[in-house]
Amino acid sequence: MPMQITRESDYAVRCLLYLKERGDAFSAVGEISETMSIPRTFTSKILQKLTKAGIVRSVRGVGGGFTLNREPGKITLLDVIEAVEGPIKVNVCVIDRKSCDRVETCSVHHIWVKMRKDIRKWLESYNFSNIEEAENTPR
Amino acid sequence: MPMQITRESDYAVRCLLYLKERGDAFSAVGEISETMSIPRTFTSKILQKLTKAGIVRSVRGVGGGFTLNREPGKITLLDVIEAVEGPIKVNVCVIDRKSCDRVETCSVHHIWVKMRKDIRKWLESYNFSNIEEAENTPR
DNA sequence: TAAAATAGGATAAAATTACTCCCATATCAG
DNA sequence: CTGATATGGGAGTAATTTTATCCTATTTTA
User: Fold this and answer.
1) Do the domain assignments include residue B42?
2) Looking at beta carbons, which residues of chain B come within 8 Å of A139?
3) Which of A2, A14, A122 lies closest to B5 in CB terms?
4) Looking at the 3D structure of chain A, how many domains does it have?
5) Which residues contact A73 (CB under 8 A, 6 or more apart)?
6) Which of residues 31-50 of B touch A (CB under 8 A)?
7) Structural domain for A65, as ranges
């Protein structure tokens, strides 16, 4: 499953689309998971990560649930993906130089570094305000 | 291991860097794997894939081995990664629409499609001629 | 025909992803 | 202050994928 976002990231995006729709209301896990077709307990875990990352806010107890913690326009795809998957690496050696003994002499190391930078920049350019506006690719 | 090339792709790139260095000579698996620190039998499998993809050419028997099948400048990173990992997906629904029952109503589907397109274009812009030239990122 | 090489299928080991379960903790209504 | 309804978090399980290895067949040259 290389060069691919995880199902978890996809689910996280769905959760946020739902919460955006709900505006200021608080939504419970069950409601989100059913509407967005995500396994319930997994949804719970994902929302926990999003909460820890400060992307959503939670309230426990009766009438509690989750809601966006900031404007949709200030939540980027990068924020979401890194919240659930951890920092994007592209190649292990980019984050952890000692993972590769060839790193000193490697003539392509800089390519992976640049690729990571460019992918992160790309993901950062989409947020939950412009993500749905973005022109639909015709056919 | 999301948004990350596989070790296999990394190994494939190493193989090609080595073969480029060797010019028109044929190199045996053992030689490539030892020099580039790749497990021997795995190297063999990777070279098989690269051969099938037409990126390298092989000759069996005494004095045989592998050599590039075309100019380094005509072998892109995309060619190599897709040769070993298969087509880049970014998200399952991009390649296989029926993998996601939400695809009809999904307001972000087009984002994954665009992301795939842009990543492929990026990878296509690097080949084994310009990949090493590319300015080394200072510090 | 023997030696040296790749080709390919099957399988094994390790790691990661994709979940589930259970109990603790918080919040609110009555 | 108690019970019902939520989320929080740790631990564990299942499924899939990645990362290999092994063995045998086939090709090629000397």
Assistant:
1) yes
2) none
3) A2
4) 1
5) A127, A128, A129, A130
6) 36-37
7) 7-132
